[in-house]
Amino acid sequence: MSNFLFGFHIGVMNGPIVSTAKELGFEGNSILEGIVVSMFIAGAFLGSAGAGYMVDRLGFRRTLQVDTVPLILGAVLSAQAHSLDQLLWGRFFVGLGIGANAVLVPIYISEVAPTKYRGSLGSLCQIGTCTGIIASLFLGIYSENDPHWWRAMLYIASVPGFILALGMQFAVESPRWLCKAGKLHDAREVISNLWGPSEVERSIEEFQSVLNNDGGDLDSRWSELLEEPHSRVAFIGGTLFVLQQFAGINAVLYFSSLTFKDAGITNGALASLYVGITNFAGALCALYLIDTQGRQKLITGSYLGMAMSMFLVVSAISFPINEELRNNLSIFGTILYILTYAIGAGPVTGLIIPELSSSRTRGKIMSFSFSVHWVCNFLVGLFFLELMKNFGVAPVYASFGIVSLLAAFFSLSFLVETKGRSFEEIEMSLDPKAR
Hints:
By secondary structure, the protein is mainly alpha-helical. The radius of gyration is 22 Å and the shape is globular. The model has no long low-confidence stretch (mean pLDDT about 85). The protein has helices at about 1-10, 15-25, 30-65, 70-80, 85-110, 120, 125-140, 150-155, 160-165, 175-180, 185-195, 200-215, 230-245, 250-260, 270-290, 295-320, 325-355, 360-390, 395-415, 425-430.
């Protein structure tokens, strides 16, 4: 539900932004239209930054329930907006909840999942996001005939928040958080129910060994992210998200409709649906591959595929070839780029950061990494069209290809394989003090 909402709010303004602007009095003002979209990112930045602090004190279940308040409030406020200010506040509140959940959900899934299936269950985040985008694009079709349909879409966006709040009431708390909070009896009960009675004593022993060595994140400080080994993981997390965003995924998704239009597919909704289905297909592939092929191999291969795709599009644009062939190559390159992103660079980035992080600083490192993500996301959205106008498609897409190659090299050089290893095994292998 969290990632479905993330995807839904990414796409919710794509179709109805024209009718929304007309009704609220900012039609034709591209700056204000951009602010409506970017206000979501501003809220998400703050939500990500504060998520680690909240989960340290409340635990995952309660924090995820608390985060539904701005999600529901923001959606309803946006739906009822009769002025630009009200719409902006609504988008900001939604962003707060989305930003916090973007940090918490991958950690929570990773901490409750059996080691064998941690990657597959973690990649459900990507599937949730894809499903949310497709749902918003599908619902957005109706806005072409009903100028007030955007309000209905935003009311609909509040429903997953209620489902999430109710659903987490029946979910378990992370056994690792329970152990850090001193609730060993509850931790044993959760481990027995989730992983089987035979895993209880071994898991508790591993948890306590790590806690005795490093302490828990309930009393950790932000300044510890500047100290080894936490600084290395914070550097990896921040860099992975910088590379992911500057490899151009959001820009390519935005520009894909124009690519399809040039090739004769003038129906914007149909073009967006092709993109959404491709994204979803890649996420399904990741669901299987992430625990069989491993994280490092998958993300490295993903970035190499993205680089090849970008260079294919650049070649199609730059060389004097038949127009039909050029259009077909551009579409193929765009589809291949989105597919290879969804298989590795998308799901693995959010999964491997908590796997590499220590128990003590996992929440804070994820908060820092996602804060970097939102800043880069905002910068790409802000400058992409200007760069396209000044330099053209080929140089910009070539730069995306070069960044993708850098990301592949970085993943190969700095990441370690985490497939099939418990959090505690990974942490003890990376921390010299634990050896």
